[in-house]
Amino acid sequence: MDYLKRMEYFTEVVQCGSFSKAGIKLGKSKSVISKHLSSLEDEIGIKLLHRSTRQLSLTEAGHRFYHRSVSILEEAKDTFEELKEHQETPTGTLRIACPNLLGADDLIPLAAEFMLLYPKINIDFIMDDNINNPLTEGVDISIRAGWLKDSDLIGRKLYSSCMCLAASPAYLNRHGSTPTNIAELESCNGINFSRVPALMNWKIKKDDISYTPKLNTSATANSAVGVKAFVLAGQGVAMLSMFAVKKELKNKQLVQLLPDYEMEDFGIYALYPRQRFMPRKNRLFLDFLSERFEGFSSTNGG
């Protein structure tokens, strides 16, 4: 007996609510569907459906069998899809959501490298500093920089980055000095990232003593791109992630302030929905990112 086929017929009848509708969906006649289900009931010796001229309803045993059948059919489908994917060249479109800075500086160059390895995979980047939810926005993978909150999504940590205080040489020259302690820092103008509350109240530590410096806010932006642009334009000091300013620090467009003080670390995460079977293209991209970011250290410039 083809148990999977009869489970499929049974679940379709339950979901469609009639033999006729299930037959149309499956491309079988009503009589064929009915005969298979009657044979199934006869073989197992249990009635699964109450039949009447008006409607079908599940028996108690039918309810149990329906839920188990759905689970078994999903598992079988996933198994066949996984085997099929391993036999084929990975294809399809990956929808990736990420913050603007992280996307432009790190992820797009890596994605280009990935696409050379898998030329039949296309990548659609949605670059936005809003926190995207893959479950509601049709995104395969959302890559986020920050402190991961409780979520129904699965989070895979790619690497850690620390925060740093940065200012332009032009601003420091105009200010008259480079701050070397908290009191001197508080005499500077600050630039805040309004979208992330944690970056509106800077937390700094030295010798096990914590500080929350209060600066006069000269500018605020709702994206890291805007905050960084203000800093480069010489408008003040900002707390930014090291990954966001590593190039500018290296080429001396920006200066790191209070390097002997400790700033908070945070993670770079790949978030994706819980699913029984992850498409191969998704899994390949996640593994590729993990490999490229393995051992990454923002403190030494990546």
Summarize this structure briefly.
By secondary structure, this protein is an alpha/beta fold. The chain contains eleven helices and 14 strands. About 45% of the residues lie in helices and about 25% in strands.
SSE layout:
Layout: H1 3-16, H2 19-26, H3 30-44, E1 49-51, E2 56-58, H4 60-87, E3 92-98, H5 100-117, E4 121-127, H6 134-137, E5 141-146, E6 154-167, H7 169-175, H8 182-185, E7 189-193, E8 204-206, E9 209-211, E10 216-221, H9 224-232, E11 237-241, H10 242-250, E12 255-257, E13 262-263, E14 265-272, H11 280-293
What are its keywords?
25% strand; 11 helices; single chain; three-stranded antiparallel sheet; D-Maltodextrin-Binding Protein, domain 2; 14 strands; 302 residues; nine-stranded mixed sheet; Arc Repressor Mutant, subunit A; alpha/beta
Describe this structure in words.
Helices cover 43% and strands 25% of the residues. The protein is α/β, with parallel strands linked by helices and 302 residues long. It folds into three domains: 3-87, Winged helix-like DNA-binding domain superfamily/Winged helix DNA-binding domain (Arc Repressor Mutant, subunit A), CATH 1.10.10; 92-160 and 266-300, Periplasmic binding protein-like II (D-Maltodextrin-Binding Protein, domain 2, 3-Layer(aba) Sandwich); 164-264, Periplasmic binding protein-like II (D-Maltodextrin-Binding Protein, domain 2), CATH 3.40.190.10. The strands form three sheets. Strands 3, 4, 5, 6, 7, 10, 11, 12 and 14 form a nine-stranded mixed sheet that branches. It has a three-stranded antiparallel sheet with strand order 9-8-13, with no helix packed on it. β8 (204-206) and β9 (209-211) form a beta hairpin.
